[in-house]
Every structure is written in structure tokens, then in C-alpha cells.
Design goal:
The complex is a heterodimer of chains A (325) and B (402). Chain A is of the alpha/beta class and 325 residues long. Chain A is built from 13 helices and 14 strands. The chains are: A alpha/beta (325), B alpha/beta (402). Chain B: Keywords: Oxidoreductase, Thiamine pyrophosphate.
């Protein structure tokens, strides 16, 4: 075990993957000798050489197109998009190519080796273009797997699983946690399961579902609610798609109440998908309407970021509304 | 010497450049009458390869004529012809090793024909039947073959070009002396993916050959409304890439240019851009009518430069081919295509399971549920789903027995 932050855990996972399999390559803008703007790829070029860890020109559609080709060839590319906000020039390559490679060829070709990593989410005073949470766009595309870790231990295990998954994965790293989230991380090579949510804390009265940095927020809200005698069950979805319906439904059948919380805007957010599925499967067990606590339907703001964000007090208010319904 | 900003010569008044001083010639060996230009060097094409190449050109022409007719008869939903561009597509393929990768756009069935894609394989894909390796998931002409190193076609334009750069980078690391050829039209070369691909290939010294079929039109848009510069070939200079323009209807020139490009790619890790000047003799697709945007006169002028006739004359001149052989082969290919088509169009559609398999390596639970729901629905309304309902009975029995 070593104590490390989420960024070091990502770096450690990449190092582990590259040491274990020489087909693993890491590349992106400023990823080479500089080690990435957040230093997620520090020392990888030094250790594994310029052929396996390198800078690319500044062209996201090229990075993902190149990565698709490499994965089709049999390499295991881990491409970095410098910020999730800048992934959109690569949207066509991800949605029309990555996601459909296996299906359209009848499994003659696939890009299962591909992992796209991108720092993601708000809370760092990043304004419109260094704060967004675009998971819902990709969740709407069959063929893609979207994963978001909540802490260093999860980040290493989920990233290693993503790199080795037979399907392409978009791995969003909550950048607010890069240095803020610190914990014990096994030094060994280990994987945590994809497509499996995790019950982080058991409870009886209400289910709180979130992912990534938002886990910390709902945990704080749950602590406050517990003081008022409300027992909260907390679930980390971990894989956004394909998502673990069973774990969520099992919890809601027990508690009868559900709050889903994410930073992304309300309308068309992934919470809507979860709410629709849960109401159809748990209709007669629900004690109150499913609540969503999310960002506002605005571009991500700067000065009023705290007001925009679905903070612990907003979640606490929703818990009370739900309990008092 | 590599031109970079740091080595550029300083000047003390504004000097603009637009590249007009650079003229890119057209490399050509074979005249439209099938004889060699004076001063044209002998080809390195041997008799066996030349015959294989011509056979593939003839096959492609026969296939295209027959399948376009089938589309007009309403037997096929859609079709695209390679007609007029066979030399560019097949001449370049012939210059590769058979294990080199090809990532094409959609009009390059000739490359597959050269590599031995069977008539059965063509027909099963065109009709999307139960034997189609892609299980009827894509429109006609979206072929692919892992064995023949031909990436499955994707409709969005130019997406395969940066993928070719990545694929070839992997080939370079694997060190087995393979390269990738990617083929696309001059319209697709306007997409961002094209520029991304060339820049990355040049920066990372990747063994990839970019072959542009400049056939004059992107559906209806002529090249004069596609770009203002000296064609597509000139763009390579911005990336400091080797570039050549070639007569795309001259199979010998295409072959020699690609052979040398392959040597540069594989031996020197130099990516190469080839612009093959050609003409789409047929419509863009079965959904297009070119009479709305180009003249008969223009088409007739290009018919006189037909790449098949040009090669045929050259072959006959050398004693490597004769007219009897041509007639017999054409007739037997026509029969083969027609007979195979008749069988393929009668085959069953893919099983219902194929709707949900291959989205992921392992089908997610939610998708399995969706399939079960769909089957139950079709079971209640079999008359509304005549193609898949018969499969349902078979499936149900199989499941019941298991």
C-alpha cells in the first residue's frame, strides 16, 4: 500500500499497464516529456521511450482517429484528451467510429484496446471550458463504455480494468479530486469490475446515487441527514454505461426513495435515464418521487460556480423534501 | 533540408507566398491508345501480376454493371460503382504486399476483387443475408475482410484516414515491414480528419500511403468549388510530406508510383501522398443522376480515357492477353455474378440475435432484456415482421430444448 492522490494513482495505473504489456501506448497533447498538463503521464516517456509515450499535434479528432487505428491494429492505446471540454472535435471518431467498430464489421475488427482518458468536472474555477461533465452525450451511444472513479484506489483499479477491457472505454477523471483526494492504494496490479456499481454505505430510508467527485458531496449530505435521524444508502455508479441497474433497483426496493445527483445540467442528464428506469421497475415500492440534484441548465459558470454546483446543502434539502413527501 | 521557422531566411519587406511557383506534374507512362509515351521507362509489372490486375479490373467492371442493373430492377437497395477508377484503386493495391492494410472509402471494391474476395462474399454483403459476415448491419457496398486486410467500410467520410495513420504507427512498432494504404476522394480531403492524419503521419514518421482519387466531383460539387489550390497533392508540402500526382487512368503509372511510395513508407518511414487524377464515369451512387451537374460531352471525353481499354491494349500489344480470352472471361464472370446473386437474394436474413450482438464484446443485461421484449412483441405480431418471425420459431425451439 502507498498513500497517493488520484493523479498519482492514474500515473501508477498507466505505469503498471505499460510495464505489464508492451502493446500499451500513452499519447496526447503535452503527454510526452512534460508528462501532461496535470502530470498524469509523468516519467512514462523516460521509462518506456518515445515510441510508447509521446506528444501528438494539437488535434483531438486526429488523436482519437489515430487511437482507433492503433487499437484496430492490435495495440492498446491510452489516449489523453487534455480536458473533457475539448473532446468534441473527436465526437465523430468516438460516436461513429469507436462505438461502431465491432458491430459494423460483425466482429471482424474491433477497437476494444482503446481507452480515452480525460480530466473532467467542475470545482476548480475553470469556467465554461475547463469544467464540463459530458458523460450523457456518450451514454447515448451504444458501444461506448463510460467510467468515472471517485478516489485514488478506485481510479487505479478501474483504469487498469478499462485499459484491459475488450471494449473501448472513455475514462473521465474528476480533476477536482486530482490532488484533493488522497488514500491508500495497493502497489500491486489489480482491477476493479466495470459495469458494477458499489454500495459505499448501507442505509434504510433513502438511496443516494452519484459518481466521481459527486460521491464526496452526497456523503457530506448523508452525514448531515443522519444527524436528523435519516439513514442513507450511498451508491457509486462507477460505470455510467452500460449501467448496473440491479444494484440500484435492489437498493430502491429496500429504501423506497431515490436521489440521483450529478454536476452536469439537469435536462437530458444521465439522472433522467436512471429515474425513468427505476420508476418502471420500482413503481409500487416508491414512497416519493425520484429527485434529481444536478447542475443548472446553463453553460458552466465561473464566479457563481458554487451556486451552480449541486452541493451538499442542495442534496440535503432534496433528502428532506423526499422524506417529507 | 527540413524547413522550419528557425532556419527560414529573414527578409526586410513583406514577402507573401501562395505556392503558385510550385508546379506539380502528372506522372504518366501509358497513352490512352495503350502505347508507352516516348521516354517512358519500362514497367516493373510482371506478366502474372499484370494478368491478375487486369482480371480484377474486368471483374469489377462486370460486377458493377450487373449490380447497378439489379438495383434498377429493385432487387438491391443501393449500389456504388468504381467505374472509371479501376486503375487507381487496383493498380495501387497491386503494388502492395497482400498483407499490407487497406483502409478505403466506399468505391474501392476493386481492391477486394484483386485480393480474392469471392463473389459469394460480395453478394452476401450486398443482400445483407444470414451469411454476410457483418450480419446485414450496413448498407450495400460496406465490405470488410480481416483475412484480406481490408478494413470494413464506414460511411462517414475521411474517418479512416487518421485511423490509417494510427494503424501504420502500430505496424511500424511491430516491425514486420508492413504499411497501410488509405484511399479517399478529393471531397473527403476537405475534412479535418484528412489534415489531422497527414500532419500526424509526417510528425511521427509513419509508414502510410494516402491515395486520393481525384475524380472531379464530390457527388455534384466540382473540384473548382472544393478547393482553390493546386489539387490535393500540394497540401503535402505543408506537412513536409512526399507527394506525387499521377494519371489515375494509367494503371502502369499508378502501379509504379505506389510501388515507390511503399518503398519510401516501409524502408524510410516516409508517409506519401498520391493524387490520382481520374474521373467517376458512373453516377455517385444509385441515388444520383449526374446529368444535373455535368455534360455528356465531358463524360464522353473521359470514356475515351477508360483505364480498362488502355490496359487491355497494352497487354495485347505485349502478347499477355487476347480478345478471345477477354470475351470468354467476361462471359463467365457475368454468369458467375448473376448465378451467385440469384442465390444470395434468396437467403434468409440474419438471426434476430444479430441485432444485439457485437455492440459490446459481452452483451449487457439491459440489451438482452430489450431483445427478449422484442421477441415477445414479434411473437404477438408475427404477420408484421415477415422477415424475422420465422427465425423466432427456430430460436424459441432452440431455447426450449436447451
Amino acid at each position: 500500500m502507498s498513500r497517493m492522490n488520484l493523479l498519482q494513482a492514474v500515473n501508477n495505473a498507466l505505469d503498471t499497464a505499460m510495464a505489464a504489456d508492451e502493446r500499451v501506448l500513452c499519447f496526447g497533447e503535452d503527454v510526452g516529456v512534460f508528462g501532461g498538463v496535470f502530470r498524469a503521464t509523468s516519467h512514462l516517456q523516460e521509462k518506456y521511450g518515445r515510441d510508447r509515450c509521446f506528444n501528438t499535434p494539437l488535434v483531438e479528432q486526429g488523436i482519437v482517429g489515430f487511437a482507433n487505428g492503433l487499437a484496430a491494429q492490435g495495440s492498446v492505446p491510452v489516449a489523453e484528451i487534455q480536458f473533457a471540454d475539448y473532446i468534441f472535435p473527436a465526437f465523430d471518431q468516438l460516436v461513429n467510429e469507436t462505438a461502431k467498430f465491432r458491430y459494423r464489421s460483425g466482429n471482424l475488427f474491433d477497437v476494444g484496446g482503446l481507452t480515452v482518458r480525460a480530466p473532467y468536472g467542475g470545482g476548480i474555477a475553470g469556467g465554461h471550458y475547463h469544467s464540463q461533465s459530458p458523460e450523457a452525450y456518450f451514454a447515448h451511444t451504444p458501444g461506448l463504455t463510460v467510467v468515472v472513479p471517485r478516489n485514488p484506489h478506485q481510479a487505479k483499479g478501474l483504469l487498469l480494468a478499462s485499459i484491459r477491457s475488450p471494449d473501448p472505454v472513455i475514462f473521465f477523471e474528476p480533476k477536482r479530486l486530482y490532488r484533493a483526494s488522497v488514500g491508500e492504494v495497493p502497489d500491486d496490479d489489480y482491477e476493479l469490475p466495470l459495469r458494477q456499481a458499489e454500495v459505499v454505505k448501507a442505509g434504510e430510508d433513502i438511496t443516494l446515487l452519484a459518481w466521481g467527485a459527486q460521491l464526496e458531496v452526497v456523503e457530506q449530505a448523508a452525514e448531515m441527514a443522519e444527524e436528523a435521524g435519516i439513514s442513507c444508502e450511498i451508491i457509486d455508479l462507477r460505470t455510467i454505461v452500460p449501467w448496473d441497474i440491479d444494484t440500484v433497483v435492489e437498493s430502491v426496493l429496500k429504501t423506497g426513495r431515490l436521489i440521483v445527483s450529478h454536476e452536469a445540467p439537469l435536462t437530458g442528464g444521465f439522472a433522467a435515464e436512471i429515474a425513468a428506469t427505476v420508476q418502471s421497475r420500482c413503481f409500487l415500492y416508491l414512497e416519493s418521487p425520484i429527485e434529481r440534484v444536478t447542475g443548472l441548465d446553463t453553460p458552466f459558470p465561473l464566479t457563481l460556480e458554487k451556486e451552480y454546483m449541486p452541493g451538499p446543502l442542495k442534496v440535503l434539502d432534496a433528502i428532506h423534501r423526499t422524506m417529507d413527501f | 533540408m527540413k524547413k522550419t521557422r528557425s532556419t527560414a531566411k529573414p527578409v526586410h519587406k513583406p514577402v507573401f507566398a501562395n505556392g503558385d511557383d510550385i508546379q506539380i506534374p502528372v506522372f504518366t507512362l501509358l497513352k490512352p491508345d495503350g502505347t508507352l509515351y516516348a521516354g517512358a521507362s519500362e514497367t516493373s509489372l510482371d506478366e502474372t501480376t499484370a494478368r491478375r490486375l487486369y482480371r480484377a479490373m474486368l471483374y469489377t467492371r462486370v460486377l458493377d454493371e450487373r449490380m447497378m442493373a439489379a438495383q434498377r430492377q429493385g432487387r438491391l437497395s443501393f449500389y456504388m460503382q468504381c467505374t472509371g477508377e479501376e486503375a487507381a484503386v487496383i493498380g495501387s493495391t497491386a503494388a502492395l504486399a497482400d498483407a499490407d492494410m487497406i483502409m478505403a472509402q466506399y468505391r474501392e471494391q476493386g481492391a477486394l476483387a484483386y485480393r480474392g474476395f469471392t463473389t459469394d462474399e460480395f453478394m452476401d454483403q450486398l443482400f445483407g443475408n444470414e451469411r454476410d459476415t457483418a450480419h446485414g448491419r450496413q448498407m450495400p457496398i460496406h465490405y470488410g475482410s480481416r483475412d484480406l486486410h481490408y478494413l470494413t467500410i464506414s460511411s462517414p467520410l475521411a474517418t479512416q484516414i487518421p485511423q490509417a495513420t494510427g494503424y501504420a504507427y502500430g505496424q511500424k512498432l511491430a516491425g514486420q515491414g508492413h504499411c497501410t494504404l488509405t484511399i479517399f476522394g478529393e471531397g473527403a480531403a476537405s475534412e479535418g480528419d484528412f489534415h489531422a492524419a497527414l500532419n500526424m503521419a509526417s510528425v511521427h514518421k509513419v509508414p502510410v500511403i494516402f491515395l486520393c482519387r481525384n475524380n472531379g466531383y464530390a457527388i455534384s460539387t466540382p473540384v473548382t468549388e472544393q478547393f482553390a489550390g493546386d489539387g490535393v497533392a500540394a497540401r503535402a508540402f505543408g506537412y513536409r510530406m512526399q507527394s506525387i500526382r499521377v494519371d489515375g487512368n494509367d494503371v502502369l503509372a499508378v502501379y509504379e508510383a505506389t510501388r515507390e511510395a511503399r518503398r519510401l513508407a516501409v524502408e524510410d518511414n516516409e508517409p506519401v501522398l498520391i493524387e490520382a487524377m481520374t474521373y467517376r464515369l458512373a453516377a455517385h451512387s444509385s441515388s444520383d443522376d449526374p446529368s444535373g451537374y455535368r455534360s455528356k460531352k465531358e463524360e464522353e471525353a473521359w470514356h475515351k480515357k477508360d483505364p480498362l481499354r488502355r490496359m487491355q491494349r497494352w497487354l495485347i500489344e505485349r502478347g499477355w492477353w487476347n480478345e478471345d480470352e477477354e470475351r470468354e472471361l467476361t462471359e463467365s464472370l457475368r454468369r458467375e455474378v448473376l448465378e451467385t446473386m440469384k442465390q444470395a437474394e434468396k437467403r434468409r436474413p440474419p438471426a434476430l440475435e444479430r441485432l444485439v450482438s457485437d455492440v459490446y464484446a459481452e452483451t449487457p443485461a439491459l440489451l438482452r432484456e430489450q431483445l427478449a421484449t422484442l421477441k415477445a412483441h414479434i411473437g404477438r405480431h408475427p404477420e408484421a415482421y415477415p422477415r424475422s418471425a420465422p427465425w423466432l420459431d427456430g430460436d424459441t425451439k432452440t431455447e426450449g430444448q436447451a
